[in-house]
Amino acid sequence: METSIIILQHIANESTKLGAISALIKTGHLKPYINKSQAFSIYGRTRVERWLNAGYIQFIKDGDHSAAWRLDRLLLEIIDKAEALLVYV
Length: 89
Hints:
It is a single chain. α1 (2-26) runs antiparallel to α4 (73-86) and α2 packs across α3 (45-54). The chain has helices at 2-26, 36-43, 45-54, 73-86; strands at 33-34, 60-61, 69-72. It has a 3-stranded antiparallel β-sheet with strand order 1-3-2. It is mostly helical. It has one domain (2-86). The radius of gyration is 15 Å and the shape is globular. The longest helix is centred in the first third of the chain and has 25 residues, at 2-26. Helices cover 64% and strands 9% of the residues. It has 4 helices and 3 strands.
């Protein structure tokens, strides 16, 4: 029973963090997308590449040729938080 309470506390904590990030994105205080190098810096190159290979995330490209590749910040955070919660399951 105690383990269930700990898991629920972690779920609530991570959900609160995601809600805050979502609110910051919606109010314009955080950019909704980040580039590949930023993602590597924040989450680690190995993890981001694993998420890409598994199909959890995809690069978004606006236009052709020299358009920059970007990643959805909120989706990256969701995957990051989900992996963190797997430790408790």
